[in-house]
Amino acid sequence: xxxxxxxxxxxxxxxxxxxxxxxxxxxxxxxxxxxxxxxxxxxxxxxxxxxxxxxxxxxxxxxxxxxxxxxxxxxxxxxxxxxxxxxxxxxxxxxxxxxxxxxxxxxxxxxxxxxxxxxxxxxxxxxxxxxxxxxxxxxxxxxxxxxxxxxxxxxxxxxxxxxxxxxxxxxxxxxxxxxxxxxxxxxxxxxxxxxxxxxxxxxxxxxxxxxxxxxxxxxxxxxxxxxxxxxxxxxxxxxxxxxxxxxxxxxxxxxxxxxxxxxxxxxxxxxxxxxxxxxxxxxxxxxxxxxxxxxxxxxxxxxxxxxxxxxxxxxxxxxxxxxxxxxxxxxxxxxxxxxxxxxxxxxxxxxxxxxxxxxxxxxxxxxxxxxxxxxxxxxxxxxxxxxxxxxxxxxxxxxxxxxxxxxxxxxxxxxxxxxxxxxxxxxxxxxxxxxxxxxxxxxxxxxxxxxxxxxxxxxxxxxxxxxxxxxxxxxxxxxxxxxxx
Length: 485
Ligand code: NAD
Prior knowledge:
With 485 residues, the chain is α/β, with parallel strands linked by helices. It has helices at 42-59, 64-80, 82-93, 97-115, 117-120, 155-166, 181-192, 207-215, 228-240, 263-275, 295-306, 320-335, 371-374, 390-399, 413-422, 458-465, and strands spanning 8-10, 13-15, 21-26, 33-39, 125-129, 132-140, 143-147, 170-174, 200-202, 221-225, 244-248, 253-257, 285-291, 339-342, 361-364, 381-387, 405-409, 427-430, 450-451, 466-474. It contains 16 helices and 20 strands.
């Protein structure tokens, strides 16, 4: 085992869990054992919540300008440890070093946004009647639980930790049991940056802990990022106990490719979007709506896909089960009559025979009823659906239950705007394959890709992590008592 056994982190201390269930943490790159993660119990969660509640009493009273000082230091620590954090993400998640580094860079950008909170939560003040003023203040919500998935071991925890904490909340983080190592390092760096003990607590585990989070009366708000199946469970169950919830789910992102699109730019963007992070991004291109004759672009996409080499510029998928699931999707599409133009099945990387690799895969002549057209595959696979018109493409995109992202590749501004207006997705790209909104804009999809009113990052997250206090003051003794009249 390369790293010591992972423990929970409660009140600034490493704490053993009370149960005796553990899971191996295996590197998808080569199948080597990295560590063991405890599958904690509801009693462990309870200790973490008690610690977070106690810390909330003092942390919520610290002025915001003082709170963000921690994040200025945390940002410099992320920069200082860029290479070791990058390597850890690479090892535990299986993505390439460049992709892992990009994730740390994004974590820094998220932290920079949290540092700007004093400029964003100034509140409003208005004289609403003679001598009478109303003001608003942003008060923290309380204890926030953050439940995260495997595909971004650093970035997704950093979607919530800096903003929630800078806004005066305290946090219980539940990492993915498949990639728990990065969270340990993030907590160490936050402690080094001066975060008081108890403001961040980590409880490792699986379904049992997630369900306990939904039910725990000491937790005020829950953020969840993961599959739609679990997002629905978490949204319903945590709302049932009157918590504020935002639950981000899976995705099936559609790309419209029009005949006038710039061919090389489109081909490189489509390929990068579908194969980046081995297709394990909720913003990955998954279904391409080829409008009219775009054969020349399809050919270029195949050329680009063949340049993506597993183990070199394409990482591993998370597990053996994930590899099998993705390959089964491809086989099923082939059986149903689709044409596999580039085939990533049965990929083995020399020297890493125990790793979990799937090569880039391009499937053409997919029809809307096939599962590769409808379902989230979460692998480096693009399904091409041939349509005659933009309207036909929009009908397919709109009918899909997800709604995370959509993109359009064209030189026509009018058509780009039309597709952007009519796609049923929360995030749209024009000539961009992975349209992640960067700070201060907010991240969040529509439909089955997100449950809850607010987005999880950017300005929208401020409303999720705070509640507004409205104070009305009469300064002038002469002002009418019934000043509303
Ligand atoms: P997952 O839903 O399996 O797991 C997410 C979290 O839920 C983990 O912490 C896990 O321990 C827990 N969990 C798993 N099964 C559970 C159950 N039955 N009950 C309660 N808790 C459970 O997701 P994953 O496989 O880790 O991540 C991949 C998924 O996340 C994909 O669907 C992807 O699209 C989605 N995702 C979405 C976004 C977004 O912004 N919308 C971002 C990243 C990932």
